[in-house]
Amino acid sequence: MKRIVKRVFLFGVMNCFLACAEQNTNKQELPIEKVESDAKKNAGHIGRSGAKFNDESALKYILGSDDYNMWGVLCRISSKAKEINSSKYTLLCPNNKALLAYGMDVVSLLKKPENIGLLDKLVEKHIINQPLTIGKLEGVGELKTIGGDILVFDSELLQVNGIALTTDQMITKQGIIIGLFGCIDFPDTALAKQIAR
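Structure (tokenized):
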């Protein structure tokens, strides 16, 4: 009797397990091509690199990024940090390699209290006042920053004011991040004098 009960129990457990497994395989999943296609369409993809999606704020994302965290620190200590976190902008982010290529500790220099005005101007020049992916930049030509500066976008060379885009892009809940291989209009004349010291 015990054997029969045990077998019936095991048989019931096995059937339940198989039914659950079958139910999970019947779920409607989107094929990967459809997901990629939708992501490219939504990101304004132009064939060089698709946008990734992240539900963090733009500033939080770049602070945690291995490639852009130096720029994140500069944005966080600037007076523009609150605005970056509360508005849907496009952040043009120089990568760490670009900042290190200047041959000095840019972050330390710009963190000095006497340079906060220079830092704010630098950060402003890297913030477009509307969310645009690389694909949506195509054909725009001129981009207006939150500081009122006009940047020139070359869609053939993928450059902003002569600085090449890395084609890394991230769509966050608070704007879009696009990587740069350098800083726009950097170093500033006042900062260049400090670097020369």
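The first helix runs from residue 2 to 25. The first strand starts at residue 52 and ends at 53.
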